[in-house]
Design goal:
Number of helices: 17
Domain SsuA/THI5-like: 62-266
Protein name: Thiamine pyrimidine synthase
Distance between the termini: 35 Å
Number of strands: 10
Strand content: 5-15%
Largest sheet: 5 strands, mixed
Helix content: 40-55%
Keywords: Iron, Metal-binding, Pyridoxal phosphate, Thiamine biosynthesis, Transferase
Oligomer: single chain
Family: Belongs to the NMT1/THI5 family.
Structural class: alpha/beta
InterPro entries: NMT1/THI5 (IPR027939), SsuA/THI5 (IPR015168), TAT_signal (IPR006311)
Shape: globular
């Protein structure tokens, strides 16, 4: 079933959502339980929920690398895929079925618009990860040419990603059509001749190649100043000293995993592949390393200008909020400092970087990964960008 010109995630009211959860329709079937998470001090098992409906991707490599290396230091942590509905990652955190979500800025704006008291505490995507895929020879670096065309999305909620991205490039978003082509089939739909473009992101480009989907791309990492996905928690948790201390320690584990992956990308891929053998079989060492290098570029950004892993660029976030207010995605102005905080970034980055580098350098790669030329892969990282 497709939905043309009718995708409007902000139209789902918080009241309606809470009625649905109260009726048991948004239950924890995806989280392996029923009802809300059991409350314990400060959290009990801490649950992070994916925005993709799956964990079998390389996007979360910092967690798996950190877990393998013992960087979570005894914390009781859990990763869950969640439903494929693009807004589930904020909904579940809001009602207490998960503790941290990983929304795109657009989905985060859906949460803000619907009165969810969430706050961004660790900005993973320092550069804009999002891109538009086109069939070979059909793309353009002028996104205004998408006016009158159809863009394929995996989830209706993704319109909250594409609208500000297009508007910031001067596109009249009222002249763009959207079709919800389904997860994980929207890329296949583009290859099969449906639509004119499809939303994509860094890391996924390599995964699509593994599936035989060979596209050309307008790349946000090269052309957009908007922020990308971020970690959000309930704002009230930051007011609880015990929970705030837990979050600092938890995010330190992620920051150490990010540093480990930066120092030894192939070792980080191996950590994910050990967790998900099917993903390893489908991607293999070279495409796996290509995918993670794309994401490291996004997650690291210009570290010389950042306050460490996870630091928010408030100017970039303010630009995003101003853009989505201008196009009506949110009805009231938002001040970036009110919904994003760097308070946890110092503690999260307070770790022994020399030790992490030593861990990464000392990792013994398997034969397939050891044979890879990482610098050669880096040199061809953007070959599929529209020239």
């Amino acid at each position: 079933m497709t939905k043309e010109n009718s995708i409007n995630p902000a139209g789902i009211s918080r009241r309606y959502f809470l009625q649905v959860t109260g009726a048991g329709l948004v239950t924890a079937t995806a989280l392996g339980a029923t009802g809300l998470k059991a409350s314990a001090e400060p959290y009990g098992k801490f649950t992070w929920i994916s925005p993709r409906g799956t964990l079998e991707v390389l996007d979360d490599y910092p967690y798996w690398a950190a877990k393998k290396a013992g960087y979570f230091d005894g914390l009781d942590t859990d990763m869950q895929p969640g439903p494929s509905d693009g807004t589930a990652t904020v909904k579940f955190v809001d009602v207490g079925q998960a503790d941290m979500g990983f929304p795109s800025p657009g989905v985060f704006s859906f949460a803000i618009q619907n009165g969810m008291k969430l706050k961004s505490v660790f900005h993973m995507g320092a550069r804009d990860t999002f891109s538009f895929a086109f069939r070979k020879g059909e793309g353009s670096n002028d996104l205004k040419k998408l006016e009158g065309k159809t863009i394929l999305l995996g989830s209706a909620a993704w319109q909250s990603i594409t609208d500000p991205l297009l508007a910031a490039q001067g596109v009249d978003i009222k002249k763009v059509k959207y079709v919800e082509a389904g997860w994980p089939t929207w890329g296949t739909a583009l290859a099969g001749g449906q639509g004119d473009a499809a939303l994509s992101w860094e890391g996924l480009r390599a995964e699509w190649i593994a599936k035989g989907l060979d596209f050309e791309y307008w790349l946000g990492v090269q052309n957009s100043k908007l922020p990308a996905n971020t970690f959000v928690v309930r704002a009230a948790d930051l007011e609880d000293p015990d929970r705030k201390a837990f979050l600092e320690k938890y995010l330190r584990g992620w920051a150490m995993g990010l540093e480990f992956g930066y120092q030894n990308p192939r070792a980080a891929v191996e950590a994910v592949f050990e967790q998900f053998p099917t993903l390893a079989k489908n991607l293999g060492p070279e495409l796996g390393t290509t995918s993670i290098l794309q994401q490291i570029n996004v997650f690291r950004g210009d570290m010389d200008k950042r306050g460490g892993w996870g630091s928010h660029d408030m100017a970039s976030w303010q630009g995003f909020f101003d853009e989505i207010h201008k196009i009506g995605q949110i009805t009231a102005p938002v001040k970036a400092e009110d919904v994003c905080t760097n308070d946890l970034i110092g503690p999260a980055n307070d770790f022994d970087k020399a030790k992490v580098k030593a861990d990464a350098d000392g990792y013994k790669l398997s034969e397939g990964f050891a044979a890879l030329d990482v610098e050669k892969i880096k040199a061809h990282l953007f070959d599929s960008a529209i020239k």
